[in-house]
Automatic annotation (TrEMBL), chain A:
It is found in: Cell membrane. Gene3D superfamilies: MetI-like. Pfam families: BPD_transp_1, BPD_transp_1_N. One of its GO terms (biological process) is transmembrane transport. Belongs to the binding-protein-dependent transport system permease family. Keywords: Cell membrane, Membrane, Transmembrane, Transmembrane helix, Transport. Residues 94-307 form the ABC transmembrane type-1 domain. InterPro entries: BPD_transp_1_N, MetI-like, MetI-like_sf. This is ABC transporter permease. Coiled coil: none annotated. It comes from Paracoccus methylarcula. It is a multi-pass membrane protein.
TrEMBL record, chain B:
It is found in: Cell inner membrane. SMART domains: AAA (SM00382). PANTHER family: DIPEPTIDE TRANSPORT ATP-BINDING PROTEIN DPPD, OLIGOPEPTIDE TRANSPORT ATP-BINDING PROTEIN APPD. This is ABC transporter ATP-binding protein. It comes from Paracoccus methylarcula. It comes from the Bacteria. GO terms for biological process: peptide transport; transmembrane transport.
Length: 325, 325
């Protein structure tokens, strides 16, 4: 297990390193780095100073070294717009995005898995077909359009929920969060649903397909032949088997949820990292873009690592073969 | 006293998109307490479906459409799920064909055994664990404590089948349905398990239905044989009588196609033709397209009639004479 963990950790570092190279090449090496990194309104003297400070006259590999060293110190440049370190700007927005993604994840799993299992156990029932039909909608309607529809119905027509913003936040573990205040929660419902719908549909379909496969397995029939309750057959024998692929997908999707919160955050004016990224792109605030890319990679890689560990705990076959290997 | 299990005119059909597959049709069988019945037939003849029908585990689109299954005086067809669940694993147990698929891959052996005990008895977990341990010892598994904490994939096929047998024996059932439990194993293990099961059943007075397509395997084990063809019992009687003097042309063909020790290298007679599709059964006697004795009279389907003066039944208009086999 330890060996496995160390190896997986090494792979994660490699992935981050690869991304660092890409971001470096993309943002630093292509085009005029001075344009990319320095406020276009800067004076000649400022440009000269920054060029020297960033060592842009040095060879590429040295520049890359400096970039990496700075990155390890959390220094990814200073935002032109906010006049503060880009990392700080992003980290300010991180809780909003993470909170949204977590709530969306909980929604999509909490609703998606039970619906998927239900549809998988009774594929021909009306409920089963309805669930599948609904998941196709969730799957195929564009995310921004679903979001606008949600706003139209629940905010504009019915007036039940606010259309945008984060509402009242409160301090939780040193972060500002919305989900602990009633007002914050009401602001969160629509964007969370919007972000969750696609994943929920994915999870429903995946769970259903897996359930259908697993119920046909001999071990399910054998479990029933032992006389244990059908509740236990579903909750233990079936669920434990389908959770393995579901966990994997959840992990992969949580990462992309953080990344793709961009659309939802834009539609609902949710002040998270995604909205910040769009704003930064519009304002050509490049250090923030770099910081966003690196941080997102870090988050996705960490989540994948975490999921792999969870996966190996769930599936004894993986655990043991990896232990031997 | 009535027999332990008496099946009368049982029909189980599968309502598929291509039509109704009459997997078993008017099957009548009986098994006495402590008796071993060999249920023999080619692949697809309906042996497994018979077993699943007894346990009420026929999956949709299949359904028991008519007939009676009297188990210790109770009709299982009318019994309902509640009765079935109380019988499954406790008074009627089943062992499946493929030991690799019977145990749930993600649950430890102790979980899978303890839940079987707890499904039927209100005992403490430690008591249930102790019972499981004893059951493993009884089927010849050494180091049971260690084994209990293992996962199925850490076991060989023979070991897994032993575990499945141990599970079947946990509640000292009145009847065990063994559905080709040794087919997937190599020959030495096959023989071991065969004699072990025979002994365990003899010790506890458990009746056994041994399902197989291998006449040679079962003839040394069973008290009585029932031969199935196209969802029907075509001949039934004491093993020795049936083997030495088969009356149904199909049984005779089966026996002639079994290699015997001394005829090594001799040409085996094969039954000509193919098993008919259940969706397009021939009219009259279902064996008639392949039968060397068929004539015009065989256009009417014969019943499974008792043979006067014997303890046998045969479903044929022109049976081989008992003596002249
Ligand atoms: N789920 C199903 N859907 C449709 N038909 C089925 C289904 N299960 C069984 N059948 C039908 O029932 C027939 C009998 O199947 P069964 O499994 O009892 O055969 P068997 O005698 O056990 O054969 P084998 O030796 O291959 O296990 C099959 O030929 C098949 O046509
Ligand atoms: S009834 Fe006729 S066709 Fe059928 S097995 Fe007997 S002899 Fe053959
Ligand atoms: Mg079978």
């Amino acid at each position: 297990m330890i060996v496995y963990l160390i190896r997986r950790f090494g792979q994660s570092l490699l992935a981050i390193a690869a991304m660092a190279v890409l971001v470096f090449l993309g943002v630093y090496a292509i085009g005029n780095p001075v344009d990319v990194l320095i406020n276009p309104e800067a004076t000649q003297a400022e440009i000269a100073a920054t060029t020297e400070r960033l060592g842009l006259d040095k060879p590429l590999y040295e520049q890359f070294g400096i970039f990496v060293v700075n990155m390890f110190q959390g220094d990814l440049g200073t935002s032109f717009v906010f006049g503060r370190p880009a990392m700080d700007v992003i980290l300010d927005r991180l809780p909003a995005t993470m909170e949204l993604a977590m709530v969306a994840l909980i929604l999509s799993v909490g609703i998606g898995v039970p619906l998927g299992v239900w549809a998988g156990l009774r594929p021909d029932s009306i409920a089963g077909r309805t669930i599948m039909g609904g998941s196709i909608l969730g799957f195929s309607l564009p995310n921004f359009w679903q979001g606008m529809l949600l706003i139209l119905v629940f905010a504009v027509l019915l007036g039940w929920l606010p259309a945008g913003g984060r509402g009242t936040t409160t301090e939780f573990l040193g972060m500002q969060v919305s989900f602990l205040t009633l007002d914050g929660l009401s602001h969160m419902i629509l964007p969370a649903i919007n972000l969750a719908l696609f994943k929920m549909s994915l999870i429903i379909r995946l769970t259903r397909a897996n359930t259908r496969e697993v119920v046909l397995q001999d071990y399910v029939k054998f479990a029933r032949a032992k006389g244990i309750s059908s509740r236990r057959v579903v909750m233990v024998h079936i669920l434990k088997n389908i959770m393995i692929p579901v966990i994997t997908i959840i992990g992969l999707e949580l990462g992309s949820m953080v990344a793709f919160a961009i659309v939802t955050e834009t539609v609902f004016a949710w002040p998270g990292m995604g909205k910040l990224l769009i704003d930064s792109i519009n304002l050509l605030d490049r250090p923030v873009i770099v910081a966003y890319l690196m941080l997102t990679v870090l988050i996705i890689v960490s989540i994948n690592l975490f999921v792999d560990i969870l996966y190996s705990i769930l599936d004894p076959r993986v655990r043991l073969s990896e232990m031997k290997g | 006293m009535s027999k332990l299990l008496e099946i009368t005119d049982l029909s189980t059909h599968f309502f598929t998109r291509d039509g109704v597959a009459r997997a078993i049709d008017n099957v009548s069988l009986s098994v006495d307490r402590g008796e071993i019945l060999g249920l023999v037939g080619e692949s697809g003849s309906g042996k497994s479906v018979t077993g699943f029908s007894i346990l009420g585990l026929v999956d949709p689109p299949g359904r028991v459409v008519s007939g009676q299954i009297l188990f210790d005086g109770q009709d299982l067809v009318k019994g309902g799920e509640r009765l079935m669940r109380s019988l499954r694993g406790r008074r009627i147990a089943m062992i499946f064909q493929d030991p690799m698929m019977t145990l749930n891959p993600v649950l430890r052996i102790d979980t899978q055994m303890v839940e079987t005990v707890l499904a039927h008895e209100k005992v403490s977990r430690s008591k249930a664990l102790e019972r499981s341990r004893e059951a493993l010892v009884a089927v010849g598994i050494s180091a049971p404590d260690e084994r209990l904490q293992s996962y199925p994939h850490q076991f060989s096929g023979g070991m897994r089948q032993r575990v499945a047998i141990a599970i079947a024996l946990l509640h000292k059932p009145d009847l065990i349905i063994a559905d080709e439990p040794t087919t997937a194993l190599d020959v030495t293990i096959q023989a071991q398990i065969l004699s072990e099961v025979q002994q365990l059943c003899a010790n506890s007075g458990t009746a056994l239905i041994w399902i197989t397509h291998d006449l040679a395997v079962v003839s040394g084990l069973a008290d009585r044989l029932a031969v199935m063809y196209a969802g029907r019992i075509i001949e039934e009687g004491p093993t020795a009588d049936l083997i030495s003097a088969p009356m149904h042309p199909y049984t005779k063909g089966l026996i002639e196609s079994v290699p015997k020790g001394k005829q090594h290298g001799a040409l085996l007679t094969q039954i000509k033709g193919m098993t008919p599709s259940l969706l397009k059964l021939p009219s009259g006697c279902k064996f008639n397209p392949r039968c060397p004795r068929a004539d015009a009279a065989c256009q009417t389907e014969p019943d499974l009639d008792p043979v006067i003066g014997t303890d046998r039944h045969v479903r044929c208009i022109h049976p081989h004479a008992e003596a002249g086999a």
